[in-house]
Amino acid sequence: ISFFIIVSSSNEYALHLGGTSTFSGIVIGIPTLISGLSLIPLVRHDKGLYTFPLHVACCASILGHVLYALAYYANFLHLILLGRMVSGLSFTLWMYCKRYCSDPRIVGVRRRTTLAAWLVIGQGVGLSFGPFAGGLLYKVGFDGKGTSVWNGFTAPAWVMAGVWVLFWALVWRYYEDIPLERLTQTTNPRLSLIFQLTLQQWGAVLCMCWFAMTCFFILGAWESNIPVFGASMPPFHWSPFAAGNFLALGGATTFPFLILNLLLARRTQDRLILALGTTLGSGGLIIFLGLLGAGEKALNYGAVFVCWWTVALGFNLASTVTMSTLSKKLPPKWNGRTSLAIQYSNYIGRVTGAVWGGSGVAVGMRNYVGLQIGLVGVGTILSLSLWRTLKTRMG
What we know:
With 395 residues, this protein is mainly alpha-helical. It has a single domain, classed as Up-down Bundle (Growth Hormone, Chain: A). The protein contains 17 helices and no strands. The chain has helices at 7-16, 21-45, 51-74, 77-87, 93-101, 112-143, 155-174, 190-193, 199-232, 240-252, 255-267, 270-294, 301-319, 322-329, 335-358, 360-363, 365-385. Helix 9 runs antiparallel to helix 17 (365-385). The protein is globular, with a radius of gyration of 21 Å. Mean pLDDT is 88; it is low at 185-194.
């Protein structure tokens, strides 16, 4: 929710402060870059536990949202960028959540894909509720007696700062880390760290990292592009509130299928879930490309919604198996490394996707969609080449 709540209004916020739509895309995507730069130092100090990074994330998120909100009062464009950069420290938890759900000290092999599916459901909640809440707060903030401190642009950040304060208090009170007696030494002698993977295993790593990047590139591109595209196209002329509702509706209607995926994950191999997700998502991209080629008369709410829905469902499904597949294919000692590799791939996709989405109208919408189809095509070639290698235990 913290990542998505500003998506529906960030473009208008940036324009109000003198920025551009591309700058808005950078504001949306920059937290993932900062998070990626912060991960290595944080991993060196976490001692294989989760309490320290959890507290760092809570503190950073509160401070980042406050800075983002104060940019309006200060009338300083780059303060929203600074606020999102500070918030980027909190998004290191994305990696720690993945690592926790595949940690061999507490999670068995047959539960990892299922837990990854639960993570994606949480991701879906943020994807749907975040833009909706942001659009609603934008509308409420300006419908009432808005001030230079509380208004439609700043309200989402103030609300999330309060939510994180409450969450941090609950963490202090209730969170328990992995018991000390279950900790095993994760830092091994140098020679044992250099585990010689086979060529096929390296291929699986490359394939899963590519799909991790591609899924989040496409999702990030659509999330940042829809407010810009909807505001600029004559058939729509969406406000931030309308764009937030559109994003939220697409995310919310995928929930029944993401929940169904929980049952599917227990009885289906990861590679089949990957194939199903990419096929659905690619279908949405191809349909949208066809609509763009047909002209403005073909563009309507229902048609674009179908495209967004299939893209959101398909690539969210595909993203559930990237980490779980590698945790099953590689030795347990590699769990920390693979979680970093997958998370960095996600980060690359998020950052570049958000910027690409913000620039979509400027570069041409058909070029915008064409690049996404090309990325999926490369992933398809990789997965078909490694189809036998990607076979794993179910669950």
